[in-house]
Amino acid sequence: MYVWLKHASVLVLLISLFFYSLTPLWFATAGDVYISQPLTREKLCDFIASLAVDLGDKGKCLVESPLVERDACYTSSNHLAYYALHYVCGYRELADSVYKFLESYPTDFYDYHQVLVGKPIPQPFTSIEHVVVDVVNIVRIVHVKRTINEIADYYRYSNLIVYKALLSLQQGDREGALRELGKLEELWDGVGFADAYQQETGKYEAYKLALAVYAYRALGLQGNVDKYIVKLMSINPYTTLYTDNTGEGDLNLETASITLLALYSTQKPIHDIVLVVVIIVLIVVVSVILTIRLLLLKRDIHSRVRRQRIIITPTSSYLFSGFL
Length: 324
Known about the structure:
The chain has 324 residues and is of the alpha+beta class. It is built from eleven helices and eight strands. It has two domains: 25-267, no CATH class; 274-303. A hairpin with a 5-residue loop joins strand 1 and strand 2. Helix 3 (75-89) runs parallel beside helix 10 and helix 5 packs antiparallel against helix 6.
């Protein structure tokens, strides 16, 4: 009897420990798995916050989705979400905890969408791989790494086209950005972007609509912004994948973060920023030129004064000597 009770106690303890380890995931999945329209700032912010998992002294990470990948924290998506939480939502405390998580697992690449928050992206595009770097309370910590396999036909992927366009804008090449977005328009079929992924799976990806909104906002092309926002707001429920106007499955962190940044970040058109930079540079150049001219003029005046003194001094001495 004693032995039986002992084994039963051990079994209960193991079961308790198992469910305790699942507690963070339970809280992460307790909310909705998608967002109903309209896509307000508050809904998107609260959804992202609901994915938080406490990792103790490593901060808090945001699991990738409430259902499909509720046991994985990608540093790439958390990097994007940090900016959304901090600068758009104003959730500073949670953002700081996510930042601590990112510091605990440093990397030099956060996927190509890092260009959205001003971080340069390497070229050419290559395929990526997911590398598990740690496991905490059954939550996998995953880095995104570039491979050596170049994606020469990047123009078949709408997300890569947008990233290329934003990179061109960062480099001050507005015309180059417009050329890239011309390739994006060729993939638009009225429902979504019928790129290589859509042709392979038959599903559209909502975050690619958000990327289009972000890019055209950066260019200041409001007509194109409105076009894609209308489609974005027609997907109900709002999920990562959709067909026509119907969302399927759950919403993931990457899609929610990009959507939040596209719709509600306070970005200004990048060409305006470039114009401001150019004006500042011109002002600095003109100021330097004027300063140099003034210095040269001052030196010339001093030189003339010295020459006059040299001419006047001997004559004065001679005149005064006549009185002595």
